[in-house]
Amino acid sequence: MITAEEEERGTATRILDVAERLVQARGFNGFSYANVAAELGITKASLHYHFPGKAELGEALINRYARRFAEALRSIDEGGADVEARLAAYAELYAGVIRDRRMCLCGMLAADYETLPSGMREAVVRFFDDNQAWLEQLLAEGQAAGAIRYDGQARDEAQLIISTLEGAMLVARPYGDADRFQTAARRLLSTLVPR
Questions:
Q1: In sequence order, which residues have a C-beta less than 8 Å from that of residue 141 and are 6 or more positions away?
Q2: Which of 11, 114, 131, 148 could form a disulfide with 192 if both were Cys (CB 3.0 to 4.6 A apart)?
Q3: Rg (CA), the chain
Q4: CA 128, CA 122: separation in Å to the nearest integer?
Q5: H/E element holding 35?
Q6: Which tens digit of pLDDT belongs to each residue from 10-50?
Q7: Rounded distance between C-alpha atoms, residue 33 and residue 181, angstroms
Q8: How far apart are CA 52 and CA 12, in angstroms?
């Protein structure tokens, strides 16, 4: 038997699932509580019970997405692969999203950045900062071991990788062509292999 608490948690999760898909497809300003309520067959009042406003829903979306992304990065690290394989696995996180005909949640929100509430803006920046920190560490480790090569600072290379992957998703999207993204990602990562 499902408890009331489990049912409430289930409803909140379903709300987040639908809202995440809508943001990844339309952007934050391209959906409303009415869209989510209609899709789930619940009232807007039920949505407001779980998430009092769209800003709270947005922050919950980013926090959940960031947690899942951080878990994926931990799995990559724990997999014991070499630096080159870990970088490829990182790019694959993005590839999986574009194959699903979606965009990175925080990439979509970055496009809406100027119109987002301040808490959401901070959460988006934190997501990219966390990704950058993970990449910086991986890149520094790889360069120290001679497994990869790049000019300049690890910070700059990490920013380049994130920007290129996000941009490659954006350009591949109107074509509905995940291979377009894959080509850009492979080309980017090939520049890090010592010659």
A1: 83
A2: 148
A3: 19
A4: 10
A5: helix 33-40
A6: 889 999 999 999 999 999 999 999 999 999 999 999 899 99
A7: 32
A8: 12
